[in-house]
Amino acid sequence: MAGDHFFLELEPPEEQFRHSPHVVIVGGGFAGVHACKALANSNVRITLIDKRNFNLFQPLLYQVSTGLVSRGDVATPLREMVGVQKNVQVLLGEVTQVNPEGKQIIFNGKSYSYDHLVLATGSGSTFFGHDKWRTFSPPMKILEHAEEIRRRLLMAMEQAEQTPDQQARQFLQTVVIVGGGPSGCEMAGAVSELMRWAMKNSFKQLDPKKTRIVLVDPGDRLLRAMPESLSEVALKSLQNDGVEFLAKGRVQTMCPGEVIVGTPDGDVRIQAATVIWTAGVRASHLGKKLADVTECEVDRGGRVVVEPDFSIPGHPEIRVAGDLSSYSHTANGKPLPGMAAPAKQAGTFIGKDIAAIVANQSRPTFNYFDFGSMAVLDRDTAVADLRGLKFSGKIGWLLWAFVHLVLIPGWENRITLSIKWIFALLTQQRASMLLTGMPSQHMALDAADAHFPMQAGEGPSIASPGAALKAAMAHYSHQLSGIPQTEEIIDTSEETSTVAK
Ligand SMILES: Cc1cc2nc3c(=O)[nH]c(=O)nc-3n(C[C@H](O)[C@H](O)[C@H](O)COP(=O)(O)OP(=O)(O)OC[C@H]3O[C@@H](n4cnc5c(N)ncnc54)[C@H](O)[C@@H]3O)c2cc1C
pTM (2 decimals)? Predict the structure, then answer.
């Protein structure tokens, strides 16, 4: 396999590492970056490969989608984070294949050798076989998703502001959020604050109280991974913010502008201009590719089942960490959750373990420290379960804010976030409400054929609704007029490029 590819050989980052073992880390997320950092003082040469040139702090994506913070506040360039480490070389590229026999990976069509390989490519979203819904209902996994959600929310409000028809306005002010886990709850609270409070004074035609936010989940309570008492607190807090919880609800189908939810009492049809998907997670496709060539086991979520040292059977030189791995060698036998802290701890452990192997020292063992879990519900309320200690309300929020400021990389991000959060606490104002991301006629003012990233100047104006909202509005008006319209004739293809696969 590798024979078909150009073999890439690069100079070491520094001469002293010319003959050092080569550690290739794929994925610059929580696990990959911490593996890299744990090897800082080791006599190894590291190549960190990521398909993005930045590390993304996913826990705050919901704040990007609701305009509280901007992209630069939650993303840090990898070259800044670890590229300065003397034994690290950062490369931009997508790893598509592993050749365990030849100890090579394939990225950007090139083949590249390793002595130790760390795969930490994380996870993506799944629509449980309904991939068509992806266009109607953006998930929240990467920066582009968050910005697409913000664009849809803001554009729906802009359209509502200039729609005299009360019913149509109600439709534009309705948001459905699928998934009642931490991401869904965080999103619901933040959308409510955005549409009910932050915009209260600036949208003169809208009645913020008419905002309708429906949170749909198949379970009988929110935040099922948390104790019941905290689920109740979360539900009350969200209800106070005007969020409706549709429990035991499974999305049956959706098309632009409409979601049909099956419940024990029958199907519920919700007409909503904006639908957001936070329901399913699936490990990166690299896990399956690794299984194809090594016969290692992957679980139902596509995660690679790993050994106590995060290696795979028969290949001690290949480690898999973070969301891509399924690790059950914990004290209570429960698999590590797909969260930042376990990914960070696994990355650090793997780095230290490789350092010990290279230095011929005794190897460490991995002991997971479970800090607990938390979810923020609005700009000053959160629930937290920290090793059995339960917190909620403002104290919960202070803990949440502290933990996230510790976790996010970089002092600049910490300072900027603190200022923006304090500002939002005091004023309800949002710092990042720019409506961007549409092909713009304005570009054409400079030159008739000036290309905006997506298409030529004669594309739709930046001030016109995107294809998804147009399709939702078309569906809504067809419903009113009684003319049936099927999903098949609704084309939202213009936006598929902004919704990542
Ligand atoms: C919206 C949201 C909110 C969350 N909130 C919380 C929270 O509050 N608390 C918490 O603990 N956890 C939270 N999580 C989960 C947490 O972010 C993940 O568990 C964590 O990021 C996993 O770390 P990782 O290193 O495995 O993967 P990631 O951090 O996802 O990093 C994977 C990296 O691999 C790169 N990559 C992927 N495929 C390839 C490839 N083929 N080639 C090269 N590079 C590749 C990606 O670009 C990415 O940089 C949240 C997740 C989401 C999506």
Answer: 0.89
